Amino acid sequence: MRKYKASCKEEEEFLKNYDPDRYEKAANTADIVIFTMSDKNELSVLLIKRGGYPYKGHWAIPGGFMQMDEDIDITAARELKEETKLDGIHIEQFKTFGAVDRDPRMRVISIAYMAFVPQSTLDFEAGDDASDAELFKIKMADEGFDLIGDRDRLSSHELAFDHEEIISTAIERLKNRIDYTMDAFEFLKDKKSFTIYELKKIYEAVKGESIDASNFRRDFLRKYVKTGLVDEIGTSRQYSKRAAAVYKLL
Amino acid sequence: MRKYKASCKEEEEFLKNYDPDRYEKAANTADIVIFTMSDKNELSVLLIKRGGYPYKGHWAIPGGFMQMDEDIDITAARELKEETKLDGIHIEQFKTFGAVDRDPRMRVISIAYMAFVPQSTLDFEAGDDASDAELFKIKMADEGFDLIGDRDRLSSHELAFDHEEIISTAIERLKNRIDYTMDAFEFLKDKKSFTIYELKKIYEAVKGESIDASNFRRDFLRKYVKTGLVDEIGTSRQYSKRAAAVYKLL
DNA sequence: GCAAAAGTGTTACCCGTACACCCATGC
DNA sequence: GCATGGGTGTACGGGTAACACTTTTGC
To answer: B95 and A93: CB-CB below 8 Å?
Structure first.
């Protein structure tokens, strides 16, 4: 909350008489790439089907216009909540898209965010036609990527607006971020109870390649357990016959 | 250049009748942190002194309102050119600042860029009072940083708007970027003729710490010369008695 | 017994850090 | 001769990739 004090009467006058509309303005939206893991541990993104013009019937990432009394970060959090009913999810602003013709209605500057939703927190009943939202698995292709949902399937080229570029940029950033942040933990079903196997599957989904289990294990112990960021709290047989250590993020 | 074709008469009608002004809008600016190296190889930033309200008399980073017919990246490039007369400089969008109260005049969303200007390309005559722009060396302090110019000197807290936060964020990003990008080369007086010593000074200025010359040399040869990104083109005695190899970025 | 995940261990190599040491030359 | 930058070399430790091998247990 930044409070500005006018320095003198003259400035007070200036601010009172300032006409905010002397120049034409663009609209601002917060658009949000909502990542999650599918039940089969594939990197997925939540899309909504546009019900109105323009790009009617096309798939798009959720987003909406910024209100004048909310920080742009709040706009993003609000949009996320409206789409997923989820609160307190980790979001990250990653790039602003401001090409002149990106929206045929008017000039729109889109501040793009990415969000990491825990696996299985989003449950869409497949085939539920009342919902115009769907989770799509991301499959990288030669040009762009393919989006595979339970009911629909499309190429990234068919997305509305410049959303192909926005999602592509988000994927690239995420692939980098996973190495030096703790984003991977945000995808866990339960940050307070998980196995190395679960975390490894998330890394593999994001990177799009398989990882050596032994090395991953060593790195995990060194980076998180030995530093005290993560604690061992028990064992589990959820994924294998042999009991696996269960960890908890502190 | 994205051309949108309406899918049908109905959509054509919709777009024709769309009222862009049905919601209140914020203004958009591109603000730009212009980094360069001082003559003594210190990381510096170009600031301008505000001549009007608000924050009259305070130092700020250059920036300006986006025009309706220019991409936001073009706005940034235009502002850079207006301030420095320089064209074709490397710029990078790094974050968008959208707090509600960041500008007392009205709601302003600032898309922030950083630019890397070659050493000594900017020449301000010290003491030239006709100019309200000045180059400030950045000295990190306990809280924020200090800005030391030839004529003026201030703490980052005294900057206009939220420009302390914008510059701080830019410095942090630059410190990271220098390790995995070739940003350092952008600061060179002449990318087509430089010595290892010159490049090392840039790294040291950005990181704020001294670097082992021998290791820097080995890394430079491995990363750039052996990969063919940089070629040896001769020798120079500019910085030392003994001749040093001169390199050229391809 | 086989498959799949859990877990231990080893090897070879790359890379960063820290130095020691020599070269060239203007002061 | 000494300070400064240019340049070579080396020794050590940690990180990483690749892989061999054992354990556990449901099927």
So the answer is: yes
Structure letter (DSSP) for residue B225: I
Q: Where are the beta strands (DSSP E) in chain A?
A: 27-37, 43-49, 59-60, 63-65, 90-97, 108-117, 133-140, 145-148, 153-155, 230-236, 244-249
A211, closest nucleotide (Cα–C1')? D17
* Contact between the CB of A237 and strand C at under 7 Å: no
- Architecture of domain A183-249 in this structure: Orthogonal Bundle (1.10)
Which residues of chain B from 7 to 26 reach within 8 Å of chain A, CB to CB? 7, 10-11, 14-15, 18, 20, 23-26
Is the whole-model pTM more than 0.70? yes
What three-state secondary structure class fits B218?
Answer: helix
Measured CA B41 to C1' D2 distance, in angstroms: 25
Amino acid (one-letter) located at B64: G
Dist. CA A55–CA A61, nearest whole Å? 12
What is the β-pairing status of strands A108-117 and A27-37? parallel
Question: What class, spelled out in words, does domain A27-177 have in CATH?
Answer: alpha beta
Does B83 score more than 90 pLDDT? no
Q: How far apart are CA B191 and CA B216, in angstroms?
A: 18
**Chain B nearest C-alpha distance from A194 (Å):** 31
Q: What is the pLDDT of residues A27-64, one digit of tens each?
A: 999 999 999 999 899 999 999 999 888 999 999 999 99
Interatomic distance B238 CA / C27 C1' (Å): 16
pLDDT digits (tens, 9 = 90+) for A157-197: 999 999 999 999 999 999 999 999 999 999 999 999 999 99
Alpha-carbon distance of A35 to B220, in angstroms, equals 38
Nucleic acid strand D within 7 Å of A218 CB = yes
Q: Which residues pair with A65 in a beta bridge?
A: A29
Strand D nucleotides within a 7 Å radius of protein CB atoms: 3-10, 15-21, 23-26
Q: What is the pLDDT of residues B28-60, one digit of tens each?
A: 999 999 999 998 999 999 999 998 889 999 999
Distances from the Cα of A166 to the Cαs of A57, B68, B247, in angstroms?
19, 21, 38
Domain boundaries of chain B, sorted by first residue: 27-177, 183-249
